[in-house]
């Protein structure tokens, strides 16, 4: 891909791969393309997506060491950014999504002794995906509880504990297994405050990886955003980067309602720069507010979770052709921030939604319906378009899997179609 | 709890002139000892005692409470047939000794969660008859403001009223976990029926409760029929007190309020001592069918129902005992009945005349501690405001 001969260079010379790139373990892996757009466009962003600063020969820029390599070769490793000549690099705090969630939970566990974590392998194993690493060592058996493989049972136990005044974090190893317990999530947790006429609240967080991973096939790849997003009484969030992950998990834990946090396994190992305000122990991201990751004028592209990254990549590619995409990171599925999307559509007149889940009755379907019902409809110059997972149970073979999840090229194609290019 | 219940009793009998009450109490014994049926034990060396001491005061209290539950359920039956109550209505008349006996064996700071056959426990846990009947008729004066109905009534340390069969059992284990976590020496009574006993999530709850030694008393209210299916058609093992396997269990005569009380005290002490969970099977009987749509005679005979009424009715058993040991007179009980009837009639009057909830409040209480937000109605132009 575009890695080595990146157009992201700000140097007036044609960009050539710096020998140091090899050393950083970059070989063969695709970097973060959206970060390269920064250098190229000379864009000064309030929260730069830069991950690593590279030393250039005539530059006084320091290089920050990178060590956040993800195990699986297919996954993106730390991105590299060429900085402008005369700027000194700030001490960038790089945090993977995994560590951001870990930090968020750690801070909330410390802050409020009623908070505790339960789930399979969360304690002594440090978490099936190592998200809860170190927490059992720090907080012990009372606060970090390993459960038997009994989703319906321990989800019910977690809900009961929440009803009795504690603030549990119930981890599902993946949300596929939450189907075993979905009755407890919906009927016991989501509906109770309403059914009791406001007497009984349920301050619980259900979290875990959601959606497709890599090569785990049909029973382990389902996206539950639409299923949980359907139900009143629940709040459903879907973080993309580290900042999202940390801010949203903290808000979820502090919220007095049942909150479903849909994480993404493929994003766990991906590092992002955590801005200084996100390093504070009281950093919260409000539930119910979307974020504009990238300003644009020609088309609004709305996504949640991992596809946000793909949208930013697509935006970079299209930018070279003069198409400026406005990328909206939903952050929250329910209650959905339709206002941000509407305002964006009224500006750009075009809408593309992107999600990993199946098309029928999905997140994109809901966005399209609501846009039609609102004032933004009159501003659309073309029908809204959805990019989704293929309408099949996830296949195993790589070529089939690659064609079952939305790729950057699919997003680019959809954007061009809607712009009639 | 004692003061609350006593005041309820006193308010019930406050209709009569005080002098008559004083005269009446002079002639009677203060307390008496009764023999109660020995409980069957599972993995226990010793069980609850086989005698129970009943004071006159407690006896009158239990009698009144059971009579209130009985009359309230019959009134609900009547209101349902008059179409004031809609949807589901699961009555527990016949099972009064269970709810009253359980309450007598624990403290108000302990916790209870049960299934949908909950009206009796709603009352014994402190919800007024008015609050219960008005909730059944779907009025704003109902204990859940008309939002919940028969199966979703809550109060302090009482977690409903749950519609999904068996789902309340892991919830109860979770409440027990919270008790242990907080270290407050409280226990949670987690009730389910003989039908629910075959739910897989109950086995999961047993496992975790035993593993983590949660102070959870699992109580199977065995009324011998799960809807229309008798226990021997549903369960390979009908010894529900043994179904906890590695968890000790007691089988209790659920038609005798004293037996239930003693067993509950025993079980609560067991849990409070940190030994972990315990299972109690209360053998009881419901006079009504499963719900109001079930006449209750297609899967059992009228003779069977009549037989239980004649021989094992919990209110009759208590009354006969108290009269036989000179703890109270028949007239006293008649007076209590009159007072109860009045209370129920008054509550029914309230329940049928109280207005329905305001339409503007349709979307309230979706989220807790949330700023108000808009909720969509049946089409995009209908919007409701939601307050917490």
TrEMBL record, chain A:
<protein>
    <recommendedName>
        <fullName>Pyruvate dehydrogenase E1 component subunit beta</fullName>
        <ecNumber>1.2.4.1</ecNumber>
    </recommendedName>
</protein>
<keyword id="KW-0670">Pyruvate</keyword>
<dbReference type="GO" id="GO:0046872">
    <property type="term" value="F:metal ion binding"/>
</dbReference>
<dbReference type="InterPro" id="IPR009014">
    <property type="entry name" value="Transketo_C/PFOR_II"/>
</dbReference>
<keyword id="KW-0313">Glucose metabolism</keyword>
<comment type="subunit">
    <text>Heterotetramer of two PDHA1 and two PDHB subunits. The heterotetramer interacts with DLAT, and is part of the multimeric pyruvate dehydrogenase complex that contains multiple copies of pyruvate dehydrogenase (E1), dihydrolipoamide acetyltransferase (DLAT, E2) and lipoamide dehydrogenase (DLD, E3). These subunits are bound to an inner core composed of about 48 DLAT and 12 PDHX molecules. Interacts with DLAT.</text>
</comment>
<dbReference type="InterPro" id="IPR033248">
    <property type="entry name" value="Transketolase_C"/>
</dbReference>
<keyword id="KW-0786">Thiamine pyrophosphate</keyword>
<keyword id="KW-0560">Oxidoreductase</keyword>
<dbReference type="InterPro" id="IPR027110">
    <property type="entry name" value="PDHB_mito-type"/>
</dbReference>
<dbReference type="InterPro" id="IPR005475">
    <property type="entry name" value="Transketolase-like_Pyr-bd"/>
</dbReference>
<keyword id="KW-0809">Transit peptide</keyword>
<dbReference type="GO" id="GO:0006086">
    <property type="term" value="P:pyruvate decarboxylation to acetyl-CoA"/>
</dbReference>
<dbReference type="GO" id="GO:0005739">
    <property type="term" value="C:mitochondrion"/>
</dbReference>
<dbReference type="InterPro" id="IPR029061">
    <property type="entry name" value="THDP-binding"/>
</dbReference>
<keyword id="KW-0479">Metal-binding</keyword>
<comment type="function">
    <text>The pyruvate dehydrogenase complex catalyzes the overall conversion of pyruvate to acetyl-CoA and CO(2), and thereby links the glycolytic pathway to the tricarboxylic cycle.</text>
</comment>
<feature type="domain" description="Transketolase-like pyrimidine-binding">
    <location>
        <begin position="95"/>
        <end position="270"/>
    </location>
</feature>
<keyword id="KW-0119">Carbohydrate metabolism</keyword>
<comment type="function">
    <text>The pyruvate dehydrogenase complex catalyzes the overall conversion of pyruvate to acetyl-CoA and CO2.</text>
</comment>
<keyword id="KW-0630">Potassium</keyword>
<dbReference type="Pfam" id="PF02780">
    <property type="entry name" value="Transketolase_C"/>
</dbReference>
Automatic annotation (TrEMBL), chain B:
<dbReference type="InterPro" id="IPR001017">
    <property type="entry name" value="DH_E1"/>
</dbReference>
<dbReference type="GO" id="GO:0006099">
    <property type="term" value="P:tricarboxylic acid cycle"/>
</dbReference>
<keyword id="KW-0460">Magnesium</keyword>
<dbReference type="InterPro" id="IPR029061">
    <property type="entry name" value="THDP-binding"/>
</dbReference>
<dbReference type="InterPro" id="IPR050642">
    <property type="entry name" value="PDH_E1_Alpha_Subunit"/>
</dbReference>
<keyword id="KW-0479">Metal-binding</keyword>
<dbReference type="GO" id="GO:0006086">
    <property type="term" value="P:pyruvate decarboxylation to acetyl-CoA"/>
</dbReference>
<dbReference type="GO" id="GO:0006006">
    <property type="term" value="P:glucose metabolic process"/>
</dbReference>
<keyword id="KW-0816">Tricarboxylic acid cycle</keyword>
<protein>
    <recommendedName>
        <fullName>Pyruvate dehydrogenase E1 component subunit alpha</fullName>
        <ecNumber>1.2.4.1</ecNumber>
    </recommendedName>
</protein>
<keyword id="KW-0313">Glucose metabolism</keyword>
<feature type="domain" description="Dehydrogenase E1 component">
    <location>
        <begin position="65"/>
        <end position="359"/>
    </location>
</feature>
<keyword id="KW-0496">Mitochondrion</keyword>
<keyword id="KW-0560">Oxidoreductase</keyword>
<keyword id="KW-0670">Pyruvate</keyword>
<keyword id="KW-0809">Transit peptide</keyword>
<dbReference type="GO" id="GO:0004739">
    <property type="term" value="F:pyruvate dehydrogenase (acetyl-transferring) activity"/>
</dbReference>
<keyword id="KW-0597">Phosphoprotein</keyword>
<dbReference type="GO" id="GO:0005759">
    <property type="term" value="C:mitochondrial matrix"/>
</dbReference>
<keyword id="KW-0119">Carbohydrate metabolism</keyword>
<keyword id="KW-0786">Thiamine pyrophosphate</keyword>
<comment type="function">
    <text>The pyruvate dehydrogenase complex catalyzes the overall conversion of pyruvate to acetyl-CoA and CO(2), and thereby links the glycolytic pathway to the tricarboxylic cycle.</text>
</comment>
